[in-house]
Design a protein that fits this description.
Layout: H1 32-35, H2 39-43, H3 58-70, H4 74-82, H5 97-103, H6 107-115, H7 131-140, H8 144-147, H9 152-161, H10 175-186, H11 188-193
């Protein structure tokens, strides 16, 4: 089936970007996309002892962590990890935060998650892809102009250095994945990254 990363809809804390409606509108009259990047607002969901304030829930906290990883919000990721989110917590599709950071080519988020011990070998339940597979899919199917503003080469290299390997069979039988694989094999920089060579290392 066509690859489409699982959506995280229905939660309300710092989530559901698709609706563009503010979470807890009376308290935080901001679009969700802005909330997930605002550490000062995220802190407002916690009490002085570091616990979640009602009506926020643990599930919403985990969803918020997923969004922070997807949008590369380093300070929010760090805060959530310090407040009880396990770096390898599985999300709704069986993926972890590292999948989302890699998918979007947010190398600083990838570096942080790896430093905190995120596993590179976990495959999500929906597509069976590892974080490296998601990174290669995102790179291969992102418009060239958008790719220029993301760090897919370094992301791939960091994942490989952390022990990730390419599962060639994962790309078979899916048009978009096969397109990404074809680009991967024909791109010298990506092939070097998949050997662990970070661009700019000399």
């Amino acid at each position: 089936s066509e690859f489409s990363p699982p959506c995280r809809r229905g939660s309300t804390i710092i989530l559901d970007i698709s609706s563009n409606s503010p979470p807890y509108a009376a308290e935080f009259p901001l679009p969700v996309k802005k909330v997930v990047g605002r550490l000062d607002i995220v802190r407002g969901f916690f009490d002085d002892a570091g616990g979640l304030k009602p009506p926020a829930t643990e599930a919403q906290l985990i969803d918020g962590f997923a969004w922070a990883c997807e949008f590369g919000r380093i300070s929010v990721i760090e805060f959530m990890l310090e407040h009880g989110v396990n770096v390898d917590t599985k999300l709704k599709g069986g993926e972890i935060g590292l999948h989302w950071a890699a998918y979007e080519g947010h190398v600083d988020a990838v570096r942080l998650l790896l430093a905190r011990g995120a596993r590179v070998d976990l495959a999500d339940d929906t597509h069976g892809g590892t974080p490296l597979g998601w990174a290669l899919y995102g790179w291969g199917n992102t418009r060239p102009r958008e790719r220029e503003h993301r760090s897919y080469y370094e992301t791939a290299a960091l994942l490989v250095r952390a022990g990730a390997t390419v599962d060639e069979h994962w790309f078979d039988g899916n048009i978009e994945r096969e397109r990404g694989a074809a680009k991967m094999r024909s791109d010298i920089r990506m092939m070097e990254a998949l050997r662990g060579a970070v661009p700019g290392d000399g």
